[in-house]
Amino acid sequence: MRAQTALESQAVAAPASPTIVGQRATTLEHEWVEAVTKRDTALLGRTLAEDFIITTPFDVITKAQCLEDLGSGALVLDSVSCEDVTVRDYGAEVVVYGTATVKARYRGHDISGQYQYQYTEGYVKWPGHWQAVNCQARRLCRSNRTERGLL
Fold first, then answer.
1. Do 104 and 78 meet the contact criterion of CB atoms below 8 Å apart?
2. Beta partners for 131?
3. What is the pLDDT of residues 38-59, one digit of tens each?
4. CATH code reported for the domain at 6-147
5. What is the structure's pLDDT at 145?
6. pLDDT value at residue 52
7. CA distances from 119 to 55, 56, 77, 116 (A)
8. What is the reported pTM?
9. Residue 15, preceding peptide bond in cis (omega within 30° of 0)
């Protein structure tokens, strides 16, 4: 199953007219989703900064751990669909946030199902290229989102 990305599911929400930097951030996000769903550690290795860290409900994961988990099959993402994506352009830094629905397994545990994940990703422009420097994801229970009027 091919992953649906923010580029396909929804236009960038802010700013109204995306900047070149904002467009590059959505391209990086697309590359990231493609890399994890295809288990492409080479592409992911280029997309993530050396000191990259992701904080999830399950673990705090470094770039090296992420690449190892993906390469070994400990992390398997069958599909990722992003919604409500917003890009904030700060020049040499970009923050992307939104909601992702995943079909995935991590170290033998199903991390998909009825949950969605709210995520925030940070990208930094290094000389000549952009990389993801951090990501934070937290699970959202549909009933909580409904009670707060978010669904």
1. yes
2. 124
3. 999 999 999 999 999 999 887 8
4. 3.10.450.50
5. 44
6. 97
7. 10, 9, 16, 10
8. 0.75
9. yes
Question: Domain locations in the chain?
Answer: 6-147
Tokens (6 digits) for 70: 């993906």
71 CB-near residues (< 8 Å, 6+ apart): 39, 41
- Quote the pLDDT of residue 150: 45
Q: Token pair 């992003």 is at which residue?
A: 82
Q: How many CA atoms lie within 13 A of 20 on its CB side?
A: 4
Q: Looking at the chain, how many residues does it have?
A: 151
CA angle 16, 43, 111 (to 5 degrees): 75
Looking at residue 142, its pLDDT comes to 58
Task: Confirm if 99 and 118 have CB atoms less than 8 A apart.
Answer: yes
Q: What residue type is 134 in one-letter code?
A: N
Interval 55-82: pLDDT, tens: 988 789 999 999 999 999 998 988 888 8
- Residue 7 near residue 30, CB atoms below 8 Å: yes
Tell how strand 75-89 and strand 93-106 pair up.
antiparallel
Tokens 């470094």 belong to which residue? 62
Instruction: Report d(CA 65, CA 69) in Å as an integer.
Output: 6
**pLDDT surpassing 60 at residue 5:** no
